[in-house]
Amino acid sequence: MSEEEKTFSKDEQEAKDRDDREREAAEQAALPYTWKQELGEVDIVILVPKGTRARDVIVAITKNELSMGLKGKDRIMDGQLCKEIKVEESTWTIEDQSAVHIHLEKLNKQQWWENVLTHHPKIDTTKIQPENSKLSDLDGETRAMVEKMMFDQQQKQMGKPTSDEIKKMEALEKFKAAHPELDFSQAKVS
After folding, report:
1. Where is the sequence biased in composition, kind Basic and acidic residues (predicted)?
2. Could you tell me where the DSSP H helices lie in 7-96?
């Protein structure tokens, strides 16, 4: 937040945010394509004249650059990508002979893009609200971590021990069983 924004009243800040959103929407609408993104991918749609076939389209995708146009005409998109992509996992298709769809797989799947091509207007990535994901969408390791966090949160709310505390208690019980000769009556567990 800039020093100027800190002095705005709530109403002034809301008006500024609304103006920023409207300006951003107008800049994005002026582009010759529409685009959306998720953390791991970017999808671009470029409308082309009805009847356009794959042989009429020229698309060049490298890890740093994207170019798309129709044979015999100026490029519709041409420039440096704002971030690197995985070329071998990026594709393009034509839908209904009227739209070219370009799918780009981000190299860094933990970063929002401000724009597709570096010379195009930027969006405010701090305002992006990602869609909720389902546990089933996550990879095994991430899913296990999220499930553990959810279990621990539920346990804390009910005043019960967390998974880590349960493991410690189980380890202590095993140790007690293995060493019946020791007296644990005065032991304090932390």
Report:
1. 1-26
2. 10-29
Answer whether residue 37 shows pLDDT above 70.
yes
pLDDT at residue 182 in the model: 86
CA separation for the pair 187, 109 (Å, rounded): 48
Question: What domains can you pick out in the chain, each with its CATH number?
Answer: 31-129 (2.60.40.790), 140-178 (no CATH)
Supply 116's token pair: 């597709």
- 13 CB contacts (<8 Å, ≥6 apart)? 5
Q: How far apart are CA 39 and CA 131, in angstroms?
A: 10
pTM: 0.63
- At 93, is the secondary structure helix, strand, or coil? strand
Structure tokens at 91: 């594709």
